[in-house]
Every structure is written in structure tokens, then in C-alpha cells.
Amino acid sequence: MKLANLLESTSLGQTYGSTDVNVNAINDDSRQVEKGTLFVAIKGVKTDAHMFIPQVIKEKASVIVGEIEPKKDWLKKITYVKVTNSRLALSILASAWYGYPSKSLKVIGVTGTKGKTTVAHVLYWLLKNAGKSVGLVSSISARIADKELDTGFHVTNPEPLALQKFLSHMVGADCEYAVLEVTSHGLDQERVAGINFEMGILTNITHEHLDYHKTFDAYKEAKAKLFKSVNTAILNKDDESFDFIKKTLRQTTQLLTYSLKSKADYTASPLHLNEAMRFAVNIGKEKYKITSNLVGRYNALNLLAAIAAARRLDISWESIQQTLASLPQLPGRLEKVENDKGINIYIDFAHTPDSLENVLMLLRKRHKGRVISIFGCAGERDVLKRPMMGKISVKLADASIFTAEDPRSEDVNKIIREILKGAKKTNAKEIELNQYDDSNHRSRKRVYIRIPERGEAISFAIQKLAEKDDVVVIFGKGHEKSMVYNGVEYDWSDKEAVEVALKGGVKEIIR
């Protein structure tokens, strides 16, 4: 494609040199630059890619997009486009490269601290089962027509080139709708710029990602970016962010609300939350009965959000009721692992204080046995939540095991010590692993144990701690297929670790 064609629908900035040059690929990774590449230099959190411009010129890049003034010797070999925001430029160029695919789709963005994966998947199935052609991009995978595609390790909101490629494939598969999980990082980093969103859905905004956003206000501002240009906004009236997000909407945006506590467009009553959730959706004086295998008040809110979106998109109540009664299990979302030991084993993605609390409270109500909680906190992420989660776990679980969850460059033992700060503010007792015996945890007194190796923690809980009717719930990783130590993605699966533990073994990470 000629550079002139890429730039014809937008004015990125000042161009130095000819636009009559061929662009064979677009890339923001200097290591993947080849002859004819348009390279976008981005100032990242850790690395400023402008320092690699001399290198990519040697690799025969044809165009460079960057935020700094070009050097005269560069302009002898390449065309340079100076922009004020390289991330924004990358998204706009990616959209142009793939033919502006979002213009051919009705795109629905789902954002929020918790629940966005569930809402996105439920809405996908509501549309699909109603006969609509729909694509999905979520933290679990991408779905286009009948194909399921991997989005990569630890990816919820793909980078612009990958995301626009997914949208392009949806257009090629004749999809009418695209449901996208949208993160605060993705919004702040302009990954979804250039996408025309028909609808935006907000689940909630709670304590998370302050390592990146620094303040809660900045976090809310990032989330609000999704809603500034949508035609329909679906907001959780129970969430403290409701008024803030509402104020960002255009006057022409249609607002739909949902709530379990107050007057809203979509409400639910009464709630039966255990083995199968049953409730009536109230819309004015009309009531529609819903049954779902999703459970918990938080999932009642998630279902209301998806129902509101489906009704706005003219999905019939009969189709909604049939779909919600037979939803497939979401990997890593309160996923139960069947076994012959009579232990209730769950894998859940919860990695925030609120999510941890909600799941533990639900499982205490749902089962009569002791509850054993296994979790860690990710390295290089929000450190303020660590003691909060330690305190919540030891207050609600009979036994808590603190372990690894993507330590990255941090020492896992240091992370655990920060979790312990919250646990030590309770009456719970710490048990040293080498001092454990069958007698010192059988009472209902709260205890906690440090086991840094996640595989060892899971096996210890299943093989040593848990008895018939007890609950073992493993938090934080959910569907993910890797664990990060010092920048290296090691093969990992909580479900596989459980299966190994049930056979008497321990899943190990060889580092």
C-alpha cells in the first residue's frame, strides 16, 4: 500500500519526504522490521522506541512515524511522519491498513474492573443463539464465526494491529456484530482508537491497576473514554462510578441502567443464588423469569448488563431465556473440577479484593465444608491491594495459602510478606509448612500458610488439607496458560495443576 493511501483519510501530523512510497507492513517492534516496513516509534513505560530509529533505517524501513523531530540524515533514506501521539497514530494506521473494519460492524465494548469477560461472553452467546453473525475478542480467546483463536498470553485488549486484524477477519466472515472486552490500559494507550463503538457497557470500577494509573480518578477517566462517543451506554447504577460516567455521555447517547439495589431500567428480584440462579427481570411493570448456571449477586448484575444490551439489539425474551438457561462454562470463572474425592474444587480468575470477597462469601453459603483459599498477587502490579486481599481471605476462608501469581521481576516471598501484612491484622494463626500436621487446622479457627511454589500450594491443599465436602478455590490465574518469572512466560495451567494434584503429584515450573 502507498503511504498516501494510508494517510488519505486522516491527518496524523507533519510529513517529511514523499508519500509515494510503498509500505509492505506496519510494525511497532523494531526487531520485526523488514524492507518496506512502516515503523511506529512509541515511548513505552520502560523503553523509548525512538532510540531504535537508526537500527530500523538500516533494516530498510520505508517510513517512520515518531514524536521527535527527524534528523537530516534520516530523511535521506526514509519518509518521516511527526505526530504528537505515536500510540494514537498506530491505531489509526492499523485501522486504515485493514480497511477500517469497524465501519462494517456494530461494535459493542465491554469494560469494567470485574465481570467484563463474563458479560462479553454472555452477550456473544445471546447474539449467536439468536441467529446473529457475531465475533468476540476477550481475555479468554477470540471467536470469529465457528473458529476460536488464541489472543496470546496475558492479553485482554490486544494491541492495535492484532485487534484490527481480528476485526478484519470478522468482516471477512460476514459478521454483523463484534463484542470487544476493553481494558483501561487499552483505552489509555489508544489501542481502540479508530474503532467506531455502537454501544458501551460498564460493569463496575473498583480498586485495581493503580500501579499504572496512579490515582483512582485517572483510572475512572480512562474507563470513561469508551463512553464519550457511543450511541448507547449501559451503566451499573449500583456502582459508585455511575454519576461520573453518566456526565461524560453525549446528549444524543441513549442511557440504559441496571441495578439490584435501586430504581433502574433493568432490575432483578427475587434472587436465588446457589446451584442455579433464578430471578425475574423487572422492566417497568413487566417481569421475565431467568434461570442460569451462573451464580452470585455479581453474576446477577453481569446478566442484567448483557440482557439490557441484548434487548437494545432486539433479541427476543424467549431467545434470551433459552440461552441463559444453557450457557457454556467459562474457563476459569468459578470453574468446578470434578473429582472422586468429594472435594469441591474451583478455579477462578478473581484477582481483586472485591472479587475475592464475593467468591468466598458465595462459596461459604453454597457449601457446608471448610473453605481453603489459594492465591497470590501479581508482581509489578497494584501493591496496595496485597494486604487487603490477605485480610479478606483469612477472615472468610478457614485456611488460606499464599503463593505465586506471575511474580514477574519481584521476589515472590516479598509479595507474600506484603499479603501477610493484612492477614496479621486478624486473629488468624500462621502455620509453618514444616510444622504442619493433621491436628492443627481442623478447627474452625482461621489459619494461613506460605507456599511460594503454586503447584506445591495446590497439591498441599488437595492432598493434605482438604477432606470430603470441603472447598478448595484457586484464585488469580483462571484460564491463563502461563506464569511469568523475570520476563519469561513459563507453561502453566491451574486446571492442569489440580489434575496432577488429584493423581498424587505436584506440577512444577522448571526455571
From TrEMBL:
Residues 25-97 form the Mur ligase N-terminal catalytic domain. Keywords: ATP-binding, Cell cycle, Cell division, Cell shape, Cell wall biogenesis/degradation, Cytoplasm, Ligase, Magnesium, Nucleotide-binding, Peptidoglycan synthesis. GO terms for molecular function: ATP binding; magnesium ion binding; tetrahydrofolylpolyglutamate synthase activity. One of its GO terms (cellular component) is cytoplasm. PROSITE patterns: FOLYLPOLYGLU_SYNT_1. InterPro entries: Folylpolyglutamate_synth_CS, Mur-like_cat_sf, Mur_ligase_C, Mur_ligase_C_dom_sf, Mur_ligase_cen, Mur_ligase_N, MurE/MurF_N, UDP-N-AcMur-Glu-dNH2Pim_ligase. Gene3D superfamilies: Mur ligase, C-terminal domain, Mur-like, catalytic domain, MurE/MurF, N-terminal domain. SUPFAM superfamilies: MurD-like peptide ligases, catalytic domain, MurD-like peptide ligases, peptide-binding domain, MurE/MurF N-terminal domain. It is found in: Cytoplasm. Residues 110-310 form the Mur ligase central domain. ATP binds at G112, T113, K114, G115, K116, T117, T118. NCBIfam families: murE, PRK00139.1-4. Belongs to the MurCDEF family. MurE subfamily. Catalyzes the addition of an amino acid to the nucleotide precursor UDP-N-acetylmuramoyl-L-alanyl-D-glutamate (UMAG) in the biosynthesis of bacterial cell-wall peptidoglycan. This is UDP-N-acetylmuramyl-tripeptide synthetase. It comes from Candidatus Woesebacteria bacterium GW2011_GWA1_39_21b. The lineage of its organism: Bacteria, Candidatus Woeseibacteriota.
